[in-house]
Every structure is written in structure tokens, then in C-alpha cells.
Amino acid sequence: MKLPADYVFWQESAEQLVDALMALADPEGSEIPLSGKASDHDANADRLEAFTRPCLLSAFWLQSLQHGNDSGKRERVASWLRQALLRGTDPESPCYWGPNTNYHQNGVEIGLLASALLLAREYLWNPFSDEEKYQVSRYIATNRATGHVWNNHFYFGLLALEFLREIGMDRPADAASIESWFSEMEGMYRSQGWFMDGVNQSYDHYNAYAFHFYGLLWSHLFGHTNPERKARWCGWAGEFLDEYQHVFAASGEHPAFGRSITYRFNACAPFPLAALLGVSPLSAGRARRLCNRNLRFFLEKPIYQEQGAIGIGWTDVFPELSEGYSCAGSVYWASKAFSALLLPPDHPFWVDAEEPLASEEGEYVRVQKDAGLVFRSIDGEVEILNAGTEISPMNMTKFGPWKWGKLAYRTGMGFQIGHQGEYYNKFAGWYSRDGGLTMEGGSDTRIHGRHYTQPFELDKDHLSCTYALGDKLEQLLTIVETSIWWNKGWLLEIHWTDAYQPVLFTLGGYALPSREAQSFKRKSDGCIHSVATNSRYSALQPLLGFEGVLWDERTDDDERRSHVQAPYHVTPLAQTGKASGERVLAALVYGGNKEEEAKPWECLSIQRGKWILEHPSLGNWTITHSALPSLNL
């Protein structure tokens, strides 16, 4: 049988990643000794992650159709995994990972480990003796009755218990735990396939590579135990993926947005599982094209660390992008994308002709009401406009609120992270100034950005939301109402502000990234503040309330890197003076790859409630809304 070229590409890509890991494997150990940062969990959790996540990758590859002369390699990989698993689950072994306990990270890893054992059962489970199976199962059973974080983590507990039920080691209480954990997660469901991420109170890519990936995985492995629940979760997944396909650019990239974005091509993971279960809203040809392009986008970037393994970062290795819970092995949850290899080579996913992505077919706007998000496409790029998500206070230090606090997240642009200052470590980090409105005030120079946000208008041509900028330590408070309209690569931003103490505001444009420090060309002509590289442009045109313009930049290695997309960046900024009370700020912000579109707008008529703008290449733009102030032209 001649295998489809794309099936071979996925299989060989998985094999190459496995080869790089196996080259590092300790013959007598229980994990892959990956170099990189440690998590804020403990050494045992990091060691277990450095086994379970590569194990999941290996499981997808092992169960795929054999071809050529790879049977010997498969057995060598499977043999090491089995022996490492026995060492890691043996309390008498120096390689023991330690059991799970209440809210321990081991519980997360055990849930996926149990699934991997069933996905590649022929290689990873069946060869064990009864005594060895009992040892491994007893370890997996440490996920029984333990506490799990109130979000998608409930899936890790129930996947472990479903495994134990599958092999005949269930307990009378297990069914009640499974039902309870499912019910808790189902209570997080909102609409259009979206879940609130539990205690994190946010909406982001975790909906794809957590809630829906695990829901579909459970349906595949265990859905026969509860057909009604399987139908419910598969229905939610279909509804979600019909919308979520719109976050993928023509290049295959999706906007970096939210936590754990270092999982990269994990974002496409639920699409093949939906195809496997027959619930995909996408044609087979579009689903494969989406997954192909997403995987290639990242594999072709310099994402590999010095050992040859995948490193923490986005389009390269950038460890500071990670959360506190991330360690060197964490990135291998990108492996979930290889669920595509569960589809047999003769499945339509592999053999049907590719079809264009939604972002290749033209511009669109997709409104996600309960998530408070808008997806839109611009010339093959994709942007997420963020009017509603938040990050809970208890998790600000772990995650960094800038991963949700920008007003816009666009492919090809990325964003800047903040860096945490010593004084502010207990609650949040120093905000970066790009991608929205930030504030400075109080007794020091900290930058304050969005945390909690409430949308109050969300439509196909604009959004409005309200939030507070400030600091609980000093009771610093400014209330903001923000309205945004869009036209091609441009955003029109109107910010009504009410500051209870004297503060200054900075409005940041798109942070333009580059791998070449000397590639930036800046321009300030009094009307527009812009920067360009050879292929991209970022511009900011202040309209109301600002006193000056400036740059946020890193163009040499003396400064600390902050951009997720590349080592160097330049961001155009507009800034006010320091004052209290009410102010209205307005500006136009551009990001894109067309020089003619980066030119300034002319204000033909600026009246309260109605603006008419004119652009040399985009023509007239008429906007009517009560939030629009009048300007003196």
C-alpha cells in the first residue's frame, strides 16, 4: 500500500521528534533529561512530565501503520518506555516519581499517561506481565479521590479512573467521581462550544487543546460507557471547531494568546479527533490543510534547544514566555497534534483533496459572544480582538496578565510580555505597553494594564468593554470604557477614562518583531508614528488626548527581550500628561504588510456620534456610534 504523502509527513515528523528524545534517554532512568527551566511544582513532577509527554508523542507514532523497516526502532522505543515506566512507578526505585496527591501536578500527567497506554496498547500495555500491570495500575490509581484544580484538570482524574475501569481495577466510588468531575466541567460550558477555564476565569486556546481535545479523546477511548455524554461533548466540539477554524491564518499560524502558548501546534489537535469520530464540521480536505499548515509553520521555525529537543517559546526558543508551572518537558504537549496518526491512511482526512482555509477565502468577522472575543481575517492574517476574557488574581504571577490583557492579538505580529518586578511579584507582573491602553501612577513607575474586563457591546463592526486599571496595594484606580472599530489592518480606538488619582496613559500600537536588529525603519511626521521592516508595518496615528509620541524598542542585546515572536522589536506609542478626572483618548492603530495601507487617515468630519475618515488607498470610512466624541479640526 502506498501511503498518502501527508500521512508519511506526519509519521516521519513524529518519528524525528521521538528520535531526538530517545537520543537523550537515560537507559537506566525514568525520564528524558531535558535541559531548561524547572517548574514551580517540584523535581518529581518535572521528571514525570519529561516522561509522560514524550510518551504520548511516542504512543501516537507507535500505533501508526508500520512501513519500511522501522519495526526494530519501534520496539526499542517501546521497550525503553515500558522499562522507564516500571522504574518510575516502583516505590523502591531511585527513579520513582512519587504518587499523586491533592492538587499535585503528577495527577495531570497520570491522566494522559493512562490514555497513552491504551492508544498504543500493543506496544505499551499488552507486553507487561500481570505483576507489572498491577504495579503500573496501582500508580495510576493514585489519581483516585485526590483533589484536582477546578478547570479542565478534572479530565485527568476521570481519564485515570476510566483506564482503571477498562482494565478491571475500578472501585465502587470511581463512578461517582467520574460523574462529579464531568458535571463540574459541564457547568463551565457557556455557548458556541466555549468553556470558561474554571478557576482561571479565561477563554483562550485551552478550549481547543484541553476541553475539546480531552472530550474527544474520552469519547474515542471510553465514550461507549456513556453514549449520551459522548454525543453531548462531540456536539460541543463540532460547534466549537466550526468557529475555531477561523483563528488559523493562511500560513497555518494562530495568534499567540492566553496561557501555555508554548504548546504551539497543539492548537490543531482536536481537528483530527473530530474527523476520527465523524463529528468534524470541516471537510476532510480543509481539516488536513489546516493541520498540515499549523504543524509546518512551527516545525520549520528555530524552535529547537541545544539538545535538539523542542524548547520553550513560540516561533523560536524564548523561555521567558513560559508560566511558572512550565518546565523543559512541558512543551511536549504539542504532541497532542499527532492524534492525526489515529486516522488510518485511507481515511478521507488523508486522501481527499485539500481545500482552502477560511482565511484564504476572504475576510470575515466571527463574534464569540460569551467568550467576549471577535475573530477576524485580514489578507490571510487572523486577529483575535479581546473584549471579555480575564485572568484571576490568584494566577497573575503564574501566567502573566499580558497574555490576555491586550486588545488585539494578530498573527505575524505577536506581542510583548511583561517582566515581573520585585515589589509587584505577589500579584502581577510589569505590564508591557503594546496592544492597548496602559497607565502609570502611584508611588513608583509600574505599568498597569487590564485584568478583569466586562464586554457590553460585541458586534461584527465594533466592540465595547469596560475595565479598571490600577493596583490593590495602593488602591490606585482608573475606570476605562473602550470602543474599537476595524477596517482592514486598522483599528480605531476610543477610550473614555476616569482617573481617581493623577496618572498618565500610554496607548501602544502593534509591537513589530524582527530577527534582525538593524532592520527597523522609523518615521514620525507629526501626523503618524510608524515603523517598518522589509515585510511588515506598524503605525499609530494619535487623534485626541495625547501630548507626545515615543518608542518602546529592543534593537540590541543590552536590553531584556520581551517579544514572543522574535528577539527584537519596535512599538509605536502615544502618551498623555499626568492628571486625574475624566479624559477621552482616541487613536488609529495599524498592523499589516502593505505600505500603502500604513499611510495616515484624513478626518473629513469628526462630529459627536459620527465620524467620516478618508484614506489614500482604503477610501472613506464612516462610523456612527454614541461613543464617538467631537474633535476640533
Automatic annotation (TrEMBL):
InterPro entries to which the protein is assigned, alphabetical: DUF2264_N (IPR049349), UCP014753 (IPR016624)
Residue span(s) of domain DUF2264: 10-357
Xref: PANTHER family: LINALOOL DEHYDRATASE_ISOMERASE DOMAIN-CONTAINING PROTEIN (PTHR35339:SF4)
Protein name as catalogued: DUF2264 domain-containing protein
